[in-house]
From TrEMBL:
Residues in ABC transporter domain copies: 347-581
Transmembrane helix listed as a keyword: yes
Organism: Actinospica durhamensis
Topology class, membrane: Multi-pass membrane protein
Stretches that traverse the bilayer: 33-54, 74-96, 144-162, 168-189, 252-275, 287-308
Keywords: ATP-binding, Membrane, Nucleotide-binding, Transmembrane, Transmembrane helix
Chief location of this protein within or outside the cell: membrane
InterPro entries: AAA+_ATPase, ABC1_TM_dom, ABC1_TM_sf, ABC_transporter-like_ATP-bd, ABC_transporter-like_CS, P-loop_NTPase, Type_1_exporter
Pfam families for the chain: ABC_membrane, ABC_tran
Domain ABC transmembrane type-1 residues, every copy: 34-313
Annotated protein name in UniProt: ABC transporter ATP-binding protein
Length: 601
């Protein structure tokens, strides 16, 4: 079974057709939708009755009576029509907004369920645009598609039947005029969906480019690259405008066309109807009623005509939303946690090969064993595959050959949440959530420790005084004005890992921003943590890794050798070169160790 086949499937309710998404959007408010539909139909029925009452009013006046009853009926009909139509529109607006909120939540859940590499490949900015702009577009057509169009279609059809009952000749004039206009409108509708989709895609690319640029803003400013990065953004701004204009051009002609048809129909009905009244083939009362129906169907006809256009635009967004909802999610894994056999290594790679997307392999048949206790260091030149090893352990990436095991069980056979609960990860960027220092520190704890415990951990990394000195202490929000320095973030990321319930710590370059004193603190903390946990450290600094229980030397995606510092110095040329490259004096300092190790070998 391939990774794609094993991926979590999308809710089958969504089906394959865009209309299923609209149905899904309304599913929690079916009762409200039915009520809104009934109210809209009632409003249409009131409107359809008005011309008959007016007609009988005309007859009453013609017969010399005062049309008091008809006047009262007319007032009641008009007021009832306004109330029912307003109420229906309000209910539908509510349903549309909450339905769009549901769709957005589904999209956010799916995006968070995707693998980081897939999110990166799709573009974070584009995903944001789909969740905001496309969902808004869908919301804006939901009421048109669900009630306004169907009710207007019913209203137009019923009016045409009633008009036919009044005078079929005049009906033919009206139908012929609107049929010709309808054919012309179809031409304009055909391009709308295409340009609508292109516009939404351009909005997505614009969001993507702007997000990337804003993330790199300090570097852009430092290199005075504002002009250069603006160009590609402006290209997308222009693409949005071009495609929006194409949509607007098509949409702009729909209402005027319907208006022209309306005027031709009115002129035709006035001329032919007038002649028919003079010849006695049509009564004045029926003539007035027919004209009222004709005026009355204009609005619903416009709604149907422009509704087709808006639905085309909505459909262009539906496709983009469905692409997100159908995106491959991470596999949740089995429900039950596997038993951990005594003596099993914390991590084991057996002949593991891996690649990103369809690129060249970055790990080639890698074998690696990380004992359940002690510090294991991964070293190697940049690009050797060290971070990829950590990604595989976390299941951010699947190997295409070989197996990765945690505590003796293939990571695929761990429930994903349990697997990640067993592992604490400090990424290279020491990423902090947009949350308080406290929330960031206790992120990996099932039961959050009290502030004293958090401060104790902060003290051990030498961060307690700095945090206590902040005006809001542990409540300081990261990402805002009162932010931390790079080295402070790195130590806070370490606190987060140390406080967590995990029994495997993966640390990617944890000392890269630390001064000598803090590096020493880090090493003693790692030693302490490694007494009852597995600690894997990726580091370039020799001082961080040289005392590790095991050092694994990686080269070109393979683990070439593993041993202590002195063992590797003695037998691994690549490791020796790495050490030499860091400091000319290091090998001299280690000469005794090399000699001792060589004689032991
Ligand atoms: N998300 C990614 N998509 C595509 N290729 C990637 C990705 N991440 C890493 N690579 C490639 O995989 C290879 C190994 O990268 P990795 O980050 O594992 O190396 P590393 O040894 O940790 O490097 P460094 O010491 O510079 O952090 C590199 O050639 C890199 O270009």
């Amino acid at each position: 079974m391939t990774a794609g086949q094993r991926a979590e499937s999308v809710d089958p309710v969504l089906g394959r057709k865009p209309v299923h998404l609209l149905r899904h959007m309304m599913r929690r408010s079916r009762g409200t939708v039915v009520l809104a539909l009934l109210l809209a139909l009632a409003s249409a029925a009131f409107a359809l009755t008005v011309p008959y009452v007016v007609s009988s009013m005309v007859e009453a006046v013609g017969a010399g009576r005062t049309p008091v009853r008809q006047g009262a009926e007319l007032a009641l009909l008009v007021i009832s029509g306004a109330v029912t139509s307003g109420w229906s529109a309000y209910l539908l607006g509510r349903v549309g907004e909450f339905g769009a909120a549901d769709i957005r939540k589904m999209m956010v859940r799916r995006i968070l369920a995707m693998r980081p590499a897939d999110v990166r490949a799709r573009g974070a900015g584009d995903l944001v645009a789909r969740t905001t702009a496309d969902a808004q577009q869908l919301r804006s057509v939901s009421d048109v598609a669900v009630t306004a169009m169907p009710v207007s279609a019913v209203m137009v059809s019923a009016s045409l039947v009633l008009m036919g009952l009044l005078d079929w000749v005049l009906l033919l004039v009206v139908v012929a005029t609107f049929a010709v206009a309808g054919l012309a409108i179809r031409v304009f509708l055909s391009g709308m969906r295409r340009s609508g989709r292109a516009r939404q895609q351009a909005v997505g690319s614009l969001a993507e480019r702007l997000t990337t640029v804003l993330a790199a803003l300090p570097v852009i400013k430092a290199y005075r690259a504002e002009e250069r990065v603006s160009e590609p953004i402006f290209e997308q701004v222009d693409a949005v405008a071009r495609n929006a204009v194409a949509c607007d051009r098509a949409q702009a002609f729909i209402s005027p066309l319907a208006g022209v048809a309306q005027q031709i129909a009115i002129i035709g009905v006035l001329a032919i109807g007038g002649a028919r009244v003079s010849s006695g083939r049509l009564s004045p009362a029926h003539y007035v009623a027919f004209l009222m129906y004709l005026f009355q169907i204009i609005n619903p006809l416009m709604t149907v005509a422009s509704g087709f256009g808006r639905i085309q635009l909505g459909l262009s967004s539906v496709g983009r939303i469905l692409e997100v909802l159908r995106a491959r999610a991470e596999r949740p894994g089995p429900a039950a946690e596997p038993a951990v056999p005594a003596g099993a290594p914390a991590l084991e790679f057996r002949a593991v090969s891996a690649r990103y997307q369809d690129a060249e392999p970055v790990l080639r048949r890698m074998d690696l064993k990380v004992p359940a206790r002690g510090v294991t260091a991964l070293v190697g030149v940049s690009g050797a595959g060290k971070t990829t090893v950590l990604n595989l352990a976390e299941r951010f990436l699947d190997p295409y050959a070989g197996t990765v095991s945690l505590h003796g069980t293939d990571v695929d056979r761990w429930p994903l949440a349990a697997l990640r609960g067993r592992i604490a990860y400090v990424d290279q960027a020491c990423t902090m959530l947009d949350a308080t220092i406290r929330e960031n520190a206790v992120l990996g704890c099932a039961a959050a420790p009290d502030d004293a415990a958090v401060f104790d951990a902060l003290r051990r990394v030498g961060l307690a005084d700095a945090i206590a000195a902040l005006p809001q202490g542990l409540d300081t929000r990261l990402g805002g004005g009162g932010d931390l320095s790079g080295g402070q973030r790195q130590r806070l990321a370490l606190v987060r890992a140390l406080l967590s319930d995990a029994d495997v710590l993966l640390l990617d370059e944890p000392s890269s921003q630390l001064d000598g004193l803090n590096e020493e603190r880090l090493l003693s903390l790692l030693d302490e943590a490694a007494r009852d946990r597995a600690v894997v450290v990726v580091a370039h600094r020799l001082s961080t890794i040289r005392d590790s229980a095991q050092i694994v030397y990686l080269e070109d995606g393979s683990a070439l050798d593993a041993g202590t510092h002195s063992e590797l110095l003695a037998r691994c040329a690549g490791y020796r070169a790495l050490v030499r490259s860091q400091s000319g004096g290091v090998l001299d300092q280690d000469r005794d160790a090399v000699v001792a190790a060589s004689s032991a070998v």
